[in-house]
Write a structure and sequence with these properties.
With about 800 residues, the protein is mainly beta. It has eight helices and 56 strands. Helix content is about 15%, strand content about 40%. The longest helix is centred in the first third of the chain and has 25 residues.
Length: about 800
Amino acid sequence: MLLNAVFTWLESERDHRFEHKEGMSSQASGYKFGTFRFDTSQQVLRNRSRRVRLSASLIKLLTLFLSRPGELVTREQIADSLWEDQSTVDVVIGINTAVGRLRSVLDDDPAAPRYIETVIGLGYRFIADVEELEREGRTASVAVADRVEDTDSRQAGALEPLFQAAESEVQLVPEEAMPEFESRNSARSRFRWIVGLVVGGLVLIVGVRMAVSRHRSPGPATGPAGTKINPIQSQQITSQSEDNGITAAAVSPDGHVVVYADRFGVSVHSVDNGTDVLATAPPSFITRQISWYPIMWRLTVSGVDRITHRNMVWRINLGSTPQMLFSDAGQATVSPDGNSIAYTRMQDTEIWVADGNGLNSRLLVPRVDGEAVAGMIWSPKSNRLVFDRVSAVLTGKSPSIAANLDAHRSASYESVDASTGKLLSKEQNIRFDSGFLLNDGTFVFAVNGDPGGSKLMLVKTDPDTGRFLSSPKPVAAPQGWNLDRAEAVESLSASMDGRVLGAVLTMNRVDVYWAQILLPGPRLGEATRLTGEISGLPTGWSPDGDAVIFDGYNGEDLICRQRLGETNPEILAKLPENAAMANYSPDGKWILFTEFSGFPGHAVGIFSIPAGGGAPRQLSTTGTLNEFHCSASSTGSCVMREIVDNREFVFYALDPVKGMGEELARAKWYSTLNGDWTLSPDGMSVAMADHDPDHPGFKLFPLSSKGSKPVSNIPVRGFGVVLEPTWASDGKGFFVETRTASGYDLLYVDRAGHAKVLREAPILTWGVPSRDGKKLAFPGVTVRSNVWVGHASLGGPGS
């Protein structure tokens, strides 16, 4: 489109303007700090090998910090770096937002910073060691305490073209910004005068094109001389940390821009050139929904004020001050013609409609006792509203699959006349929180909470009434979205022609977490995530308690070790088949692990490597191998278990060099799970889960060749089925995993059967104590919500 051509021209002109003036002043080709590497020539930040997406303003801020490690960077210097004209922004909020977002990207805790330290009342200091990578290929390690030179002039050249091009995207178009843009007096006044002439000549054309776009869907996107622009590729727009997920997003009507929100504010992303800019957003506001006006650069945001906890709707004209439209209201959505805004009141139980400026509000759909509105969409002609009614107690994310299915059964799709509120059509058992309608009546919506993962559904509806003309069918999502792994698809939106889709995808992965074991209790301290790029499941601790070994996965199965406080794991071993369930030998000299094959996996061998690293060596075993365990004590032993004809278990001594040793004990066989038994710290007894749903508990067996009579049976009542007991390091109790009706519990159970809940989790969970009994490792879910866009293929199932 013509406006994008202007942006492209602006970027090229600015690149030419600045490349000789300042672009060659810096000799650094990049910086390294912690696990990050920043390439100044490409303006790319990577965490290990993963690219981290940054907005233009965050690129400038990061470069400012990296060029001055250990030095105080004042708030005034940050403002001068980020904004040439500070009269158009709230500088205080802008600085706080930018620093907060950069900390989020770096996964930096302001209470215990590793990178950015706050100097109260003055500014900030980058406290990590920075390694400067020079263009000639040399590197210079820059200790923060030794860096004293002023490097302000070294950053402007590389960043200015990108930042200013992005800045122009949100300041050239709004009508309110035009006079201010043309009157600015700055070092770039001559350049801006030229831009002003170009933009002034295009305002009428752009205005006509936008007015026409209100009444018809845009045709295929074209570039110069009518050349067709290739459809966008599926891409992940954001890379948020788990504590700062995306809360809302929306694709622009023409599909060239995505606006998204997190806890720091609202950002504008150009799909075409990848630039991001921070928009001026309401202060202390968490955005839950975004809706575009047909006039570009104007939108509504609905959400909650973090201070007053009131639901509000604001209008944002990008580049100017936000306006509050409605208080105690939510779910605002603008009609395609821009003349109306629909929103909810009374805890989402009523639907109201106002004109496009937020005036002349009127009640359209009254409340129904016990029900609430979960999602709301305008028809393309702006004459109907489609919304979803659900049970008021089931709004939001359901706590379980069963509850989600109940929510679907209690939900209803309704279509009403936007002028009178008259019901035109209704369908039962349809649940959607977000979706979109196309001119031909095609309705696409997201379904979350099904056992098979989230999915997109498509149904043909009557364009005039909204009546279903067919049953909803699954439709192919943009390539790369991986909805089978998505916990939820939210903020689903599309361009007017339905060719560009955007959504917030919430992905879950399992990581290793650890916490202090606090006494009396015992109870667990604050959980800390250990793993990063390589996810994993904990299986043991190093003898000194400073590192966890875990089953890692990054596309292939690995045995990994990672020290507390470090971000990079050490890969100890990998096998052609799955390698898992690693543990240290009692003397700490060896690491043993099991190889599994097939699906479901069955053990086919036990391997060992020196604790310091080395090639895996398979140990000698016979019979049908089950698994092994080693005591969490230097005085214990290692024991392996085999299965004989599904009749009995046989326990053998296991040497990390020689392999299987003498027989120790036998026990009656019953159906087992991996990890459902454990070895005592002294190596003299085994604890085995019984998996009995009627009499849940676990048994203790002595490791003696004289028989398999259990020394005791420890019941665990009231917490579901026992899946796995793990001996505490002092031998006085157990960390026990149970399966409940709503998930999984991790308990501490003493020898008398007294149980205490330590953690509740939606996934399998177990405890791995350190040898000194002071720390516990366990699996936990890491949740990340990010914006994705992709080219739509809405021809039907599988298309």
